[in-house]
Amino acid sequence: MLHFKSHTVDLTFAYTYHKVQGSTMPEVILVLNKSPGRAHIKLTSVYVGISRVAHTDDIRLWPINIDEDTDHLTKMSQDAALKIWKDNYSNHKWDTRALQKLNASKVELAMEKLADTADLNDLTRDELIAIGDERGLGVTSGQRGKKSNLILMLKATWEKARQAAKKSRHTKKKKKNDPKKKPTKKPTKNHNQNSKKKPKKKSS
């Protein structure tokens, strides 16, 4: 025969940072150390954790090894999307010109990345997804899981980028070796004309 005692204790002693969003708590204990098999904590998650209480005196930290478990905390950075919002959104309006300039620079960087790539297979799946997003190719969730599909989508753009880079290098080389183009001489200063004569000292 089995015997057991019931306890009014909830076995869930911890919450994820996503779970507590929007909640206010009397006290919190933050777990910031590294853990095997778990992604490193993000800056946004830390903000969520410390903002669950009204006073900082109600915040405690789970025991952490300062020498081994803090290096990932020093590498945290602001979310890229949040920075874009802070820099380009004001008075309930987006700065369309700034966004267009930002998008153009992202596309240019993506094309440079493709131009410098000898083989698309050398890129990781995440790199291919990032380039596809920057180029506005509309990579769907189904295509994100298949590297072969991503390579197929980017192949035409990759070939175009490689040809453009090759043409640009050829043009620069041609201009450099053009014998008709005479090197411009920098004007030399005439020190004799510009220099002033020092007054002679009177001999006593």
Q: What global shape is seen? A: elongated
Main sheet strand line-up: 1-2
What percent strand?
Answer: under 5%
Mean pLDDT: 78
Taking the alpha carbons of the first and last residues, their distance comes to 130 Å
> Could you tell me the radius of gyration in angstroms?
31 Å
Uncertain stretches of 5 or more adjacent residues: none
Structural topology:
Layout: E1 28-30, H1 43-50, E2 59-61, H2 71-74, H3 80-88, E3 89-90, E4 93-94, H4 96-115, H5 125-134, H6 141-144, H7 147-176, H8 191-194
Parallel strand pairs: 1-2
Antiparallel strand pairs: 3-4
Could you please describe the fold and organization of this structure?
This protein is mainly alpha-helical. It is built from 8 helices and 4 strands. Strands 1-2 form a two-stranded parallel ribbon. Strand 3 and strand 4 form a beta hairpin. Helix 4 (96-115) crosses helix 7. The chain is elongated, with a radius of gyration of 31 Å.
Structure, briefly:
The chain is mainly alpha-helical and 204 residues long. It contains eight helices and four strands; from the N terminus they run βαβααββααααα.
Key words describing this protein structure:
two-stranded antiparallel sheet, two-stranded parallel sheet, 8 helices, mainly alpha
